Structures are given as C-alpha cells and as structure tokens.
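Fold these two proteins, one after the other.
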Amino acid sequence: MMNSQHLTNTTVKYLSLLLLLVLLAIVLLPFGVVVINSFKTPTEYVNNGPMSLPQNLNWDILFTTWQRLDFTHKLWNSFIIATSVAILGLGLSLFNSYALGIGKMRGRVILLIIFLMANTLPQEALAYPLYYLAKFVGLYNTQLAVILVFAVIQSAFGTYLLSSMYSQFPREILEAALMDGSNKLQLLFCIIVPVSTPTISVLFVFFFIWTWNEFFLPMVLLPSTAKQTVPLAIAVLQGQHNMDATASAASALLGILPCILFFILFQRTLTKGITAGSVK
C-alpha cells in the first residue's frame, strides 16, 4: 500500500514537472524566435523562414539597429523615466498607505475603492485630458509630464497593496513606539518601513518594469524623437507597408534585455518579497 502511494506521488510530481516544462517552452518560444532572427541577414530570413537557425551569427544587424535608433540615448531616457517613476510612485504609495492603513482616516474604504478603480481605467480614456493638461501647465513634450502621470498611476496600485498590509500591522508595536517618544515620521521610517521592506522592494521592481514597457501615453506626451523611450524607438522601425523583420527582432531584443538584466539583478529581492506573506 505504501509503495503504491509512493509511486503515485512520484508519478504526479514528474507529470507536474513535465507540464511546467511544456508551459515554460511555450512562454520562451516567442523570445527564442526573436533571438534567432536578431542574428540573421534579411536574405536568410526570406529564404529559410523565421523558425530556422541562423547560419552565422550576424552581429551587424544589432549594431546597425543600435546606431539607427540612437539606442544609447533612448536607453538613458527610459532609465531616467522608469527610475523616477519607481521612486516617486513608491513615495506616494508609502505616504498614502500610511494615512489609510495606519492612520485609519475617515472614508478610507471609499478612497481605497477609488484607488482600485483607478487601476482599471484604460489609458485611452486618459489620453485626451492628460494631453490638454500637459499643454496647459507647459509640460507637454517633457519627460517630467510622463514621470508625474505614471507616478500617480502606479501609486494607485501601491497604495491599495500597502494599505491593505498596514491595516493588519500590530497596534501594540505602534503604541509602544509612541510611548517611547517616536513621532509619526519616526514611526513610519524606523518601524513600519523596515518591516515592510520586502514588499516595498517588489513594488519598486514592478513600477520600474511596468513604466519601462509603457508605450501609449509616452507616445502622446513625447512627440520629440530626442525625448522618446525604448518602446517608441522600436515602433519607428515598423512602416505602414513594409517591415524589416530582422531589424524589428534586433530592436525587440535590445529593448527587452535591460528588463531581463534588471529582473535578474533583483531576483533575490523579488523572491524575498513574494514569500514574505505576513508582517513580522
């Protein structure tokens, strides 16, 4: 009986592993197609198709695409915008959630519902008012406009997440700190923030990656080529009636590599933040 149960458990584990490997292959297939086509010549792509392996590693298309898009400048633009949004959005989320979760201010439920609804608004609905607002305040075609818009958008999700966690924060710890003479800022930065560092780190990584990949609103607010981000630069390569598939694949690879590198660097932070399921 025990051997039969052990065999069944082993079979289930191997089947689960096989299913996960199949799902992983499905997820990685588009990325693999992009990689192999980034090193092909246009002739190879036309003659052998998109699924064939390159005969030789052709690095010229990557270097040509880099120079054609002025990719160094576009990378710097994306880095400045994504980092600024992650920092500012995290700061807004922290102070908002401190007031809603710890302060227990009046109407907190209604405000949380509003923050939650803000995450469901399509960006197409925001384009028209944001365009005219940026024009009115003189921020149109500036990176600051994109930073402020996305900092507010990302902070809506961060506020909802952190306030839900802070509402469960042990009140005894907070009362003991107040009795010891801590003020509200010391309470926030010396007690609450250190305890919630894993979740804050995860929010920072998500805010950075989400902002890096944004396309629609930066396209509306940044018409100048010199101020555009990586996704906008990649879109330039696609014409209305023709498209260089190898150049598009190379630009897509160049655009996704910084996100992969950033994700790898903060992998341990993400693992700690996701597995931290409760307030210590």
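Now the second one:
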Amino acid sequence: MAGIFQRLFKLGQSETHALVDKFEDPIKMTEQGIRDLKKDLQGSMQSLAQVKALALRMQKDADNNKRLAAEYERKAMLLLSKIQSGELDQAEAERLATEALNRKEEATRKALESQKDYESQEKMSSELQVKVEKLRRTVQSYENDLTTLKARARTAAATTKINRQLSTVDASSTLAMLEKMRARVEEDESLATAYGGLVDTEKSVDEEINRALAGSTGAPTDKLAELKAKMGIK
C-alpha cells in the first residue's frame, strides 16, 4: 500500500512541475517587463533631475541679470549726480551714464530671456514630474500584482496536484485493502492472546507441581496423616 501512495505522490509531483512550468514563462516575461520599466523609470528620473538643474540655472541667470540691471541704473544715476556737484564734465558724465543705461537694457533683456526660459523649463519639469510619478506608481502596481499572481499560481498548482491525486485514488480498492489489513491485524491479535493463554496454563501446572512437592516434606502433610489416623482412614 505504501508503494501505491508513493507512486501517486510521484505522479502528482511530476504534474505539479508541469503546472509550475506552465506558469513560469508568463511570470518570467512579466518580471522582464518590470525590469525594463524600472530602467525607463531610472532614465526618466535622470532626465527630470537634469531638467530641474537647468531650470534652476536659468532662474539664477535671470536673478543675476536683474541685479546687474539695477546696478547699472544706480551707476547711471550716480554719474548724472556728479554733473550737479561739478565732479564730472557734463558731456563725459552723460556719455558714461548712457553706456551704463545701455548695459542696463542689455542685462534687463537677458533677465527677461532667462526668466522666460526658466518658466518654459519649469513647465516642462512639472509635466515630466507627473509622468515620472505615474511611471513609478505603475511599476509599483505591477510588482504588487506579480507578487499576488505568483502566490495564486503556486496555490493553483498545489490545488491541482491534490485534486489530481484524489481523482486517481480508487476508493473501493483502497477500502478493500484496509479491510484486509484490519482482518489480518485482528487475526494477529487473537493469535497473540492465544499464545498468552498457553503461557499462563504452563505456569499453572508448574505451580501445582511445586506445591505438591513442597507439601511432601512440610507440616501440612503430617497433620493430614494424623487426622486420617484419628478417623481410622488408611
């Protein structure tokens, strides 16, 4: 009987391996797809970091040019004030003040361009951030789904194995074998009981013999003889 169950186990084991193999290919393909998505996510994050860094640099350029424009305006005003104080010739002061104002205009133009580029880059950065977060959530969702599907695949394989084993078991023949084993065990138990009775019988005969021998030399036998003599029994 043990051999039958062993053969059933081996059969179920081979079928389970076949079922696992059937699940393996889609699982491996899904795992590879997730790895590819992770690479895409990593590349997207690097691109996002570069875009953010460029936006910050543009913002810094805009702020620097704004400060520079304000500084040139301040210098132009100082140069014109020196005309009133007589520290500079009017023509020279106006020439230098005009140059300062020209540079102010150039710095202002650069500040506006940098600010416009920053706003465009920041918009692009925000859009890319949304896409990166969406891709991150997608990867996480796929990983969770894969974990669940792996567990379900193992459960399905184990359940199929058990059901297939149960379907291959012949209940009537198994019951007949169990009844045969039960009859054999009961027969062995009866035989053991019989041997135990023989042992007890042999012990009883030995005890009677021993008691008879002990009585031939003991006091009880003498008292019996005396009583028989008293009663006239030979």
